[in-house]
């Protein structure tokens, strides 16, 4: 059994064999820094393929809307809930996916998500009514997609630093590439085999994700993280407080509020744009070309924006604001676009405008919260972005009431413009809020044993004339939005009067 286990490729780094040395006497292996390349590019490719298949499937789900309307004879708003529920669970399950990824590993969770999608898609192909699709496609496929999508984003953020925007842009372009390919693929399969057989074919394609999931090799052994706070395993309550503490950060609150506004209408074009074009008298096969142009420009723009945003001369916040404003402006122009050519131009410019905000969502979340809080912060961001599942049903309800999708697009555009002004509050909040207030607890770290003990109350007094930062380090994320007011800081050893009696332990304020 031992020979068989060691021969398995991509097996876990940590050992499950009997311990020859007691755990308390063993020293943990050194924590590996992000390689900024190497195997990270393999993970980028794997995560790209995940997005091509998983997010591409959701982004092209609009081609199924016409078939479902004909099959079940329900209203546009009710039918749109099939895809919207799925979108919502991708976001809502973000924190759970992040936690499970940290606990069990990215490889296991991503493969589990792929298997759930395969099973749920087959079940959806046998659905007798919309209620069944709400469960099979909406709930099961949504949860599986969250498990499959989230680990890749976390892995990329751990493997890259200076090239993080480029790597993220490549990964996020997978969703656009998937929409580009799968829109035509599903339309072809629906015409030849029907929508039920088309879902079964897609279920078979998901085996690609199961295979690529084995490439998600952890950067460090399971159980070892780069954050001191994450190593406080003996205090679950403290970890819970650390997680909820993000909601006391003003910058994080502004960030999630702005993204909640701009993501409300994110999925409206992917669900209703084809139907909107058909209502204007454009043939359905020509209408799907609009989605092809949208996917093509979005895929290329996300890679280009990823490369640009890695430059030190670029302010990522301004790029994000311009992107959000551009998307809002395009949505508000929909009522005056009636011809096929104008809608093609809309798709081309929407793919370009949306790229900046889409790829910078995980990058700026990492910049604001740091590596140690990225899994939790990213999960919370996805939960807030679950508001995007309300956009398609709202646009469908507007169409049922008015006979047009115009008002739905205009409302979504207005919310994007409002989000642009909310994002402008982040620099103000950064100037008025000291990032050093992110301290959580005072601890003593023994370098030889890696033991962590909390400080006593009788700390040496801090002289009023000397800044506390010079004697104690206020720990915060080293990536600080490139703000000129706040510079990078490293923990320093306490040099006070009791430094000689401190022994081998480093006294650091977190």
Automatic annotation (TrEMBL):
InterPro entries: MFS, MFS_dom, MFS_trans_sf, Proton-linked_MCT
Record's keyword annotation contains Membrane: yes
Transmembrane region(s): 39-59, 109-127, 133-154, 166-189, 201-219, 252-272, 284-305, 317-337, 343-364, 376-395, 407-429
Disordered, as annotated region: 487-510
Ranges of residues in domain Major facilitator superfamily (MFS) profile: 39-431
GN (gene name): LOC112255744
Source superkingdom: Eukaryota
Principal localisation: membrane
Gene3D superfamilies listed in its UniProt record: MFS general substrate transporter like domains (1.20.1250.20)
UniProt GO cellular component terms: membrane
Molecular function in Gene Ontology: monocarboxylic acid transmembrane transporter activity
Organism: Oncorhynchus tshawytscha
Biased segments, Basic and acidic residues type: 487-498
Compartments (UniProt record): Membrane
Membrane protein topology class: Multi-pass membrane protein
Record protein name field: Major facilitator superfamily (MFS) profile domain-containing protein
Presence of keyword Membrane: yes
Pfam families per record: MFS_1 (PF07690)
Keyword vocabulary terms for this entry: Membrane, Transmembrane, Transmembrane helix
